[in-house]
């Protein structure tokens, strides 16, 4: 039996879905190029089509609930994030624009752009062998 060729509508829909999936940013691995608390500039490390990606200038950080306890069980000291220039990090991309987010409540979204890499939040450092005790 002869193989049935896909119709043009199927080809168009498959092409649209393929292009949409390629343009959605979800997460990436990057390197901190400039640490300016509470943000950092991140260079995505994946080379796409032979080209480096643009630096993301103001990625935010997640702190998770941090609690510092010293050797004697004292919890009075504040815990701090331990990042530096050159660290490789895992970054997630928000669905919507976070330009007006101030960490003080609701914020307006000023753009129709979705999943853009400049809506980035650093989740954590990618571990090296030296990071283990």
General description of the model:
With 133 residues, this protein is α+β, with helices and mostly antiparallel strands. The protein contains 1 helix and 5 strands. Strands 1-2-3-5-4 form a 5-stranded mixed β-barrel. A hairpin with a 2-residue loop joins strand 1 and strand 2 (39-44). The radius of gyration is 21 Å and the shape is elongated. 8% of the residues are buried. The mean pLDDT is 82.
Describe the structure concisely for a colleague.
With 133 residues, the chain is α+β, with helices and mostly antiparallel strands.
Strand content: 25-35%
- Model regions low in confidence, pLDDT < 50 over at least 5 residues: none
Largest sheet: 5 strands, mixed, barrel
- Given helix and strand content, the structural type is alpha+beta
Please describe the topology of this protein.
Elements: H1 8-23, E1 27-36, E2 39-44, E3 56-61, E4 88-93, E5 120-125
Parallel strand pairs: 3-5
Antiparallel strand pairs: 1-2, 1-4, 2-3, 4-5
List keywords for this structure.
single chain; 133 residues; alpha+beta; five-stranded mixed β-barrel; 1 helix; 5 strands; elongated
């Amino acid at each position: 039996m002869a193989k049935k060729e896909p119709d043009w509508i199927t080809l168009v829909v498959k092409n649209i879905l393929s292009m949409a999936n390629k343009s959605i940013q979800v997460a990436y691995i990057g390197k901190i190029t400039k640490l300016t608390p509470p943000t950092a500039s991140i260079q995505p490390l994946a080379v796409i089509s032979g080209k480096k990606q643009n630096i993301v200038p103001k990625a935010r950080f997640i702190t998770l609930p941090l609690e510092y306890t010293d050797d004697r069980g004292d919890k009075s000291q504040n815990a701090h994030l331990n990042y530096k220039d050159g660290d490789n990090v895992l970054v997630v991309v928000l669905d919507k624009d976070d330009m007006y987010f101030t960490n003080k409540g609701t914020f307006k979204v000023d753009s129709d752009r979705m999943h853009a890499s400049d809506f980035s939040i650093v989740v954590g450092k990618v571990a090296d062998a030296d990071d283990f005790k």
